Here is the input.
Amino acid sequence: MAKTIIFLCRCFGEIGAAIDLDHLGERVKEDGAVVATSIVDSLCLPEDIKNVASLIRESGAEKVVIGGCSPFGRADFVISGLTREGIERENIGIVDLREACSWIHRDDPQGAVTKAWNLLAMETGALEHRKRSEDAVIKVRPEVMIIGAGPAGLAAARSLIRLGIRVHLIERGGSPGGMLNLISHVYPSGESAGEKIAPYVEEIEKNTLAVFYPKAKITSFKGFAGDFKVTLNANEKEHYIRVGAVIIASGARTLLPYGLYRYGNLKNVITQMELERQFIKGTVNTRSAVFIQCAGARNHDRPYCATICCPSSLKNAMRVMEELPGAKVFVLHRDIMTPGSVMESYYRKTLSQGVQFIRFEESTPPVVLGEDQVRGVEVYDAINGVTRKIDADLVVLSTPLVPNEENRKLADMLNLQLDRYGFFSEIYPLHPLETRIDGVFICGSARWPVSSDQAIVQGEGAAIKAASLLAGKEISALSLSRVPGVKTGHATVSKDSCTGCGNCVSVCTFEACRLQKIDGNYISRVNKMRCKACGNCVAVCPNGTMQLPEINYRATGEMIRRAFGDMQ
Here is the structure.
């Protein structure tokens, strides 16, 4: 058995307050593999690492078990420090005594000690059989592909070229700007949409680091973080590019509310975007306008709030009153959504200018009146409990942002998933701009409806994440981890025992496994850059040929034996 030394950290009293570490230290010595134990006040101060490394060398131990905080705390700092001191990563085991024992079992000290002992025993046994995955290192392609040239994509592109990173900007339309090309002014500043987007467009057009592909469509996508291979068609010409990271900023589109409030069969029932077009042309003409909120949103098919609808109505309602003195404007709503102090002030400004708000219930929606043209709107006022008839010659429907139709094809190509509505659902709560595919980031309304300001901020954030990934000249497969620190490892397969059944291929959500024909037989192969060490392939392998070296079947078996077997 390999000689093992165990360090128990008091964590400045956070662990020692609930766990009797002296008793625990004596108990773990019963393990024949343990040659020494050491109880320390801390492990995460700079001077602690050198002291621990010195004790390890003096003890002659081959393995090290650290009983302290979780990997989400400071454990990663301890591991990194010990590896810099020459201790091999595969010989270091981490046991969570703070969050998993001390903090949650303060009222049961004896139970906390028993649990801590079990965890230490399991980790000690696992270290005996733990092996190390062979790492893979690739050369980074210091370029980024951005899908979509709306506010999010333009903001990401500008941030990257300012960092000296070459950008390939892919746009399905003919010009950059996205939906900002379709509106006249933005909220809450009231500035021209063209003026807002112009600095981004100008900088990208002038900078030689930015390459713009109009009317473009991706036809092939392969590779992994650091080296993606993309084929696209732009302006009927085929292009082949290789990039180290991808940013999805493909945006969204507005819903056309056919079948709602007589849209499509009654003159002057229009959408917000159609009203914007009239503002641009200068053809808005109304004596009394009614805005109806949540047209096609917050219902069974789309229960979500689309973020931009209420602010857009506030902006356009005020503009109608400013450009057409004497006009009356009504906003019929189920709730006005204006989160934050800025948007709340924007709402109050709308009230002060004379826009009238009437709340209705979903069960009693407004009724648009008229035979061939709008004559009025009848609505049950849920606040006052009366039915009101409003004379109107214009009805504006606030419709939600919905996913682009191309999302499904793009998701299939990039091996990403969509939510039930069609937005990209590959986001992590603590990392909202990342996807489960390393090197692929997402921002703007491709992931969820947002305003242009929010899209710009997210685009800049995605650019920083991409730049961080490409900061070095090389990327190690073991560095591509979904949790703090290095990756657990990656799956390995023995070509001598693999039967080529394909189970691993069918369950791998990262497309890391594939079958390769060698000497007439199919053998599974693992792409280390894509593998996330999730263990799905190990679970379905019928003969155990697929393994994670760091958590192989011998290590797992020893952990189970120590937890439930003869050491109890």
